[in-house]
Known about the structure:
The complex is a heterodimer of chains A (about 425) and B (about 325). The mean pLDDT of chain A is about 95. In chain A, a hairpin with a 4-residue loop joins strand 1 and strand 2. Chain A has two domains: about 1-65 and about 385-390 and about 420-435, Urease, subunit C, domain 1; about 65-370, Alpha-Beta Barrel (TIM Barrel), CATH 3.20.20. Chain A is built from 14 helices and 18 strands. Chain A is globular, with a radius of gyration of 21 Å. Chain A is an alpha/beta fold. In chain A, the strands form four sheets. In chain A, strands 1, 2, 3, 4, 5, 16, 17 and 18 form an eight-stranded mixed beta sheet that branches. Chain B is of the alpha/beta class. Chain B has helices at about 15-35, 60-70, 90-100, 115-120, 135-150, 170-180, 210-215, 235-245, 250, 275-280, 285-315; strands at about 45-50, 75-80, 105-110, 125-130, 160, 185-190, 205, 220, 260. Chain B has a five-stranded parallel beta sheet with strand order 7-6-5-8-9. In chain B, helix 2 (about 60-70) links the parallel strand 1 (about 45-50) and strand 2. In chain B, helix 5 crosses helix 11 (about 285-315). Chain B is globular. The interface between A and B is medium-sized, with 18 and 23 residues.
Amino acid sequence: xxxxxxxxxxxxxxxxxxxPGAVLVQNGRIAAIExxxxxxxxxxxxxxxxPEDATEVDCGGKCLAPGIVDIGVKVCEPGERHKESYKSxxxxxxxxxxxxxxxxxDTTPAIDSPETLEFVTRRAQADTPVNVLPMAALTKGRxxxxxxxxxxxxxxxxxxxxxxxxxxxxxxxxxxxxxxxxSCGALVIAHPQEPVLSAGAAATSGKFxxxxxxxxxxxxxxxxxxxxDIALLEMTGARYHADQITxxxxxxxxxxxxxxGLDITAGTSIHHLTLNELDVAGYRSxxxxxxxxxxxxxxxxxxxxxxxxxxxxxxxxxTPQDEESKRLPFEEAxxxxxxxxxxxxxxxxxxxxxxxxxxxxxxxxxxxxxxxLGLDSxxxxxxxPADLVLFDPDVPFVLDRFKLRSKSQNTxxxxxxxxxxxxxxxxxxxxxxxxx
Amino acid sequence: MSFEHRHLLGIEPLKPxxxxxxxxxxxxxxALNRRPEKHxxxxxGLTQINMFFENSTRTQASFELAGKRLGADVMNMAMxxxxxxxxxxxxxxxxxxxxxxxxxxxxxxxxxxxxxxxxQKVNCAVLNAGDGKHEHPTQALLDALTIRxxxxxxxxxxxxxxxxxxxxxxxxxxxxxxxxxxxxxxxxGPPTLVPGQFAEFGAEIxxxxxxxxxxxxxxMMLRLQKERMDGxxxxxxxxxxxxYGLDADKLAQAKPDAIVMHPxxxxxxxxxxxxxxxxxxxxxxxxxxxxxxxVRMAAMDLxxxxxxxxxxxxxx
Lengths: 436, 316
C-alpha cells in the first residue's frame, strides 16, 4: 500500500519551508520526501516500489501540509447529541483538514470518570474517520472542588486535563490538582481568567460595550488569571497549557514564565485571531464567544505572538450550539462557535493579509499541538504518520453555514467571503475526505 | 418631512434632520394635547400592542395615552407575568404576537439588544421603550423637546448628565442625541457609575459635581436604582446625596437660568433635593412628562405613515 503525492507545494512547519516536492506514503506513514523533485518516480525506485503498486496523487501545485491537530473540540456526546455527535464532528473535521481532534470534557455530564471516558472513546472509534484523543475533567463535575482520578483517566486514554471554561475559584484545590497532575506527568489545560471579574460578561469593556450597553469584562481579567496560574506553576512545577490567550496585556507575563523555564504553553482561538469586538455589531449572537472578542489592537498583538511563537497553538475552540441557544438576546445567548470546517479558511485570511506564512500557521495548528501532547504527528517528516491535508490556498468562495457538516451551524463566518479550501484529507495515508 | 425608518429602535440610526422632524411634529401634538378635545384619528384602524417585559408605569401609560389620543386600538401586555415565566422564548412570543397582525409594537425588555432581535422577526413597526442598558429613544426625544422649548434651541448648549451613567439607557440615548445636535456634554458621577469609556464619545467626565456643573445650561439628573446603593457601587445613600445629590448650593454653579430635568421616578433626598424638584422656576420635570406623550404620538404617527406607504407599495 503506497501513495505517491506528486507536484505538491510542501508546507513543512518543522523546517519552516514552503517548497515544491513529492511525498511517498507507505503503510500509513511518510516513507520519503523530496523537495524540488524533478523526477518523483525516483522516490518509488529508491524505495523499491513498483509503479503499479503505488497510487499517484497529482496535487496540481496545491499545498500539502501535516493535518491539523485541534486541541479543544467540543463534541456534545454524552448529553446533547443533537448539537454535535462524533459522527458529525468527524465529518466536519475531515472536511476541514483536521486529522486529530482533542475533545473537551465539558459535556453533560462532564467526562470526569474512567467509565464516561471509555464510553466516549468507544463512540469516537465507531463513528469517526479522524483520530480522536479525549481530554478529561481536572475536577469532578468541573466544579473545582475535588480532583478526578487523574491516574486511572490517563490509563483510560486521557491526553490532558481541563475544566474548560470553568475557572477554579478555589486556588487551594487548583494547587493540589496541579501538584497531583505533575506526579502523573499529566498536562493541565486551563482557562486563564479572573473568575469573579469576568462573571456574567458578554463583551470586552471598551467603547463598543459601553455603546451597546452590554455587561463587559476588562481585558485585564485574563492577565490576572494567567498571573495566578503562573505563580501556581512556580509552586508546583506542573505541565500547563493556557487554552486561549487573547489580549496584549497577558503576553509579557507569558513571555516571562517561558523565559523562567516553566513548563508552560499557550493557545489562542481562530476567532480571536480573525475577528474583533466590532463584529458583534447589531447584537449578532453568533459572534458571542468565550472569552469575548477583543479590540483590534489585541487581535493584532495576538497574531504577532503567534508569529514569534510566544503563543504556541491555534485551536478552533469548536463549540456547537443549536439555534435555540443562539436566537436570544445577546446577554442570554450561549457562547461559542463551530469552527472545525472554517479553521483553515479563516487561518488563511492571516496568510493572505501577509501577517503569517503557511509554515508558521501549520506550526501553530499541527506541529506544536502534536508536540505538546507527545504525538509523532503534525510533521512532514519521514516516519511520521501520513496525516495530511491537501488544500488550495487561493480559491475564493462564500461560506454558506447550511452546508457545514456539523449538526450545529453557529459560525460567525456565514455569508462571508473566504479564500482557500481543503481539497482532500488523509489519515494514516487513507483519504477521509475529498471535495466533490 | 423625511423620516425613513421602519422602526424606532434607538437614537443611533437617526440623522439630525430626522430628530428635528420628530420634534417638529411633536410640537403640533403638544398643541393638540392642550386643547379640551384632544383627539385625532391618524392611527384609526391600527392596532398598538405595548409589551413590557420589565415593570413600568409611567412609560407604559404615556405610550397608551399617545396611542389612544391618535385613535389606535391599544392593548397592554404585562409580559413579566406571562408566557416568559412558562419558558417561551422571546422569538416565539414575537411570532405569536405577529400572527395577531399588530401595526405598532412598543417593547421594553431587560436585555440590551432584545428589541432589535424582536424587530427582525415581526412585520410591523417596533418602538423601543427601553432595552437593558442600551437605548430608550423616546425618553431622549422628549428630553430634547423639553430643552428645545425651554432654551429656544437644541445646539451649542452645555448639558450635564449626572448620576448612574453606567446602568442607564436614558443616559446613552441622551448622550447620542445631544451629541448629534452638537452640544457639549458633561457626565458627572462617581467613577464606579461613570466608566471612562464614555470619554470616547466626546463627553467630558467629572467626578466633582460642583466643578462639572459650572456654567451649564441644562442639568439632567438620573435615577439611582435602589439595588446600586448597597455598598457595591457607592458607599451609602447619604454619602451619595452629599457628593452627587442636586441641591440649590450645587446648582448655583450652573448658569442662573439653567433648567433641571429628571426622567422620573425621583428619589427625593437621594439624587435630588425635594424643594428643588418642585421649584417651577428651575425644574421642568412636569413638562418632560407632558412632552413624553407628544413625542410618542409623533413617533408613532411617523412610523405609521411609513408602514402605510410600504403596504400600499406592496399592494399596488
